[in-house]
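Researcher: Structure for this, please.
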Amino acid sequence: MKKMYQEWLESGKSKSEFADSVGLVRTTFYYWTKKFSSGEESSSSGNGFQLLGTGSPMGRGRILAHIHYPSGVSLELYEGVSVEYLRALLG
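Model: Predicted structure, token format:
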């Protein structure tokens, strides 16, 4: 997302024009531009993103669900994800 933010800064387009041109949900892009412009993404509080793995190497299959949260977080669930794994993710 940081790369897209940089591309937007260089594009001269409005936030909505840029989001539409690259296929992003506008509210998601607004959220990230606010975070990047305020410097929140470089916070050292330890509350950043974490990479989660499946524990086994598997290629991406068909997307079963794509969830967009109001905070800008996006979650994609792919074919082949076990119920146990989802339970572990959602706690």
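Researcher: Any notable elements?
Model: The CA atoms of residues 27 and 72 lie 7 Å apart. The radius of gyration is 16 Å.
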